[in-house]
Design brief:
The complex is a heterodimer of chains A (about 220) and B (about 300).
Chain A (H helix, E strand, L loop, with lengths): L5 H4 L3 E3 L3 H18 L3 E10 H9 L1 H9 L12 H7 L3 E6 L8 E9 L4 E10 L2 E7 L2 E5 L5 E7 L4 H11 L4 E8 L5 E8 L5 H8 L4 E7 L2
Helix pairs in contact in A: 2-4
Chain B lengths: L4 H11 L3 H13 L3 H24 L12 H11 L5 H19 L3 E3 L9 H13 L3 H21 L4 H4 L1 H19 L4 H15 L15 H20 L8 H14 L16 H18 L2
Helix pairs in contact in B: 2-3, 2-7, 3-5, 3-7, 4-5, 5-6, 5-11, 6-7, 6-9, 6-11, 7-9, 9-10, 9-11, 10-11, 10-12
The chains are: A alpha+beta (about 220), B mainly alpha (about 300).
Chain lengths: ~220, ~300
């Protein structure tokens, strides 16, 4: 049987009204901000399913924007996020979308940085404030943000996992899970590591310098 | 951590522990934190609960949709006036439950316990029982560990989600967890605590999840009130020596089975029950049209 923590049951501390429509939405917004990793100019939120139907009454819009501003689901300023974003000159836009066969509370977030670079994140809120990211920049992925996460973009070829693991092993960072995705043999590929400890900026930099690695990003909520 | 209620009673008996002590020990072991750290972490949750339980009694809190609000304030004043039928303890408890639900619906800070929709029951029950019995803040934290333990067992073999098991899984579980904690707070044994949880489940079995407009407002706030009353009155019944004829674990499994046989319309989809009444649909239309108006569509 699955074990629960006392704080899974009495918790999380969150801004209401809904763990899936509010707390989970804030978490997805924050993950999108961290993946974009730049100062943000504009964000477009495309809401799917139950998110699209009940977003207003659940404050899903405010929660998503709060996440984009870096707030956590328990931040009391969450309900003022739209005004805060306007003040900071960040444009936000909401629309509905049909993403097909995905969980009912799914959002596609398109972040445009002040440098013009566009980052697209698709994630679902799956209950109790928990989320899962299913797509980044059009590529399939799968991670929850529960653990410090490392996203690596690389070219599909033998030895890539080993080289990243060498960096992790140098500091004895334990791996919780590892998933590998690729578009085609010898083409674009990605890895998602969930770790017991967050990596330092220097370690991320060391991973970026590995030949045939295009990018590496840390998602630490 | 044990899987079933009967195991919990057994292990507490063998080690001569209260439920809260066993849960605190297990939490410390699993999380690699000291017992003190785990205890203090729960204190933070209690503080958020206390603030949410008081806020709506002091000010009229309105939900984001505008459908509910101000009821905790009304009840609190009524309770202070002193001409109530069920007395100050019960009316204060009711007001606190409504307050948490109103704070939640207004995008205030709450502790999901076990869910946001049922966030008023455990705070209202424990804070009010603690006040009436002259208990300390630490006693309330211990009671939260008792509640968590009972909730963990329910989550293991059944569910705490309204979308899966209906309101009986959310407000029903919250009330069962709260009642068990009050019994332990009053000096009852682990076995008595689980008997209280069992009786609460028996009385809420079959309750559907039918939120109007899909929002955590109608009927959720008032069901938090009802769950609180059930938790408190059941604790008194058990402390008088009354036991449940059906054991706790079997009531949990009954709750799970009933939840599984509920049609989709009655599991948080807002397609049946009160959500599908004439007024429920009218409120939904009102919420949706105001959302579109403010969106400029």
């Amino acid at each position: 049987m699955r074990n629960y923590s006392a704080f899974d049951i009495i918790g999380p501390v969150m801004v209401g009204p809904s763990s899936s429509h509010t707390a989970g939405a804030a978490r997805l917004g924050k993950i999108a901000k961290l993946i974009a990793g730049v100062e943000i100019k504009h964000v477009q939120f495309m809401l799917h399913g139950s998110f699209a139907q009940t977003w207003k009454g659940h404050g899903t819009d405010k929660a998503l924007v709060a996440g984009i501003l870096g707030m956590d689901p328990w931040d009391a300023r969450l309900k003022d996020s739209l005004e805060m974003a306007a003040k900071q000159g960040i444009g936000v836009e909401f629309s509905s979308i049909d993403l097909g066969d995905v969980s009912p509370n799914t959002v596609k977030i398109v972040v445009t940085g002040i440098d013009g670079v566009v980052t697209t994140v698709v994630g679902s809120s799956i209950g109790g404030g928990n989320v899962v990211v299913i797509q980044v920049d059009g590529d399939d992925t799968e991670f929850t943000g529960t653990y410090p996460t490392l996203l690596v973009h690389h070219t599909d070829m033998p030895g890539m996992i080993l080289k990243v693991c060498e960096v992790l092993y140098a500091r004895k960072v334990n791996i919780v899970s590892l998933k590998v995705f690729r578009s085609a043999r010898a083409a674009d590929a990605s890895m998602v590591f969930e770790l017991d400890e967050a990596l330092t900026e220097r370690e991320i930099e060391a991973i970026r310098e590995i030949p045939n690695i295009k990018n590496a990003k840390a998602i630490n909520l | 951590m044990v899987d079933y209620g009967y195991e919990l009673v057994k292990v507490c008996g063998e080690k001569d522990l209260h439920i809260w002590e066993y849960i605190l020990e297990e939490e410390s072991k699993e999380s690699f934190l000291s017992k003190d750290e785990v205890f203090e972490k729960m204190r933070d949750s209690l503080k958020v609960m206390q603030a949410a339980a008081e806020h709506g009694m002091e000010t009229e809190v309105k939900s984001v949709s505008g459908i509910i609000g101000g009821d905790a304030f009304k009840l609190s004043r009524y309770s202070d006036e002193g001409s109530t039928l069920t007395g100050r303890v019960m009316t204060k408890a009711m007001a606190r439950a409504l307050s948490c639900s109103e704070v939640n619906a207004s995008m205030g800070r709450i502790v999901a316990a076990p869910t946001a929709g049922s966030c008023g029951i455990i705070p209202a029950t424990l804070i009010t029982a603690g006040e009436a019995l002259g208990k300390s803040e630490d006693d309330l934290i211990k009671a939260l560990f008792t509640s968590a333990g009972v909730g963990e067992i329910i989550a293991k073999s059944a569910t705490l989600a309204g979308a899966e098991g209906g309101c009986q899984a959310e407000c029903g579980s919250a009330a069962a967890m709260a009642s068990a904690a009050v019994v332990e707070m009053m000096g009852g044994s682990p076995d008595q605590a689980l008997n209280a949880a069992a009786i609460v489940f028996k009385n809420i079995l079959g309750l559907v999840c039918d939120p109007v407009a899909g929002l955590v407002e109608v009927p959720c706030a008032k069901r938090n009130m009802a769950g609180t009353v059930s938790a408190l009155t059941t604790a008194d019944m058990v402390m008088a020596g009354v036991m449940s004829k059906i054991p706790f674990d079997e009531t949990v499994s009954a709750m799970h089975n009933v939840g599984n046989s509920l049609p989709n319309e009655l599991r948080e989809t807002a397609l049946g029950g009160l959500a599908a009444t004439e007024t429920g649909l009218k409120l939904k239309k009102m919420v949706l049209s105001s959302a579109e108006a403010s969106d400029g569509k």
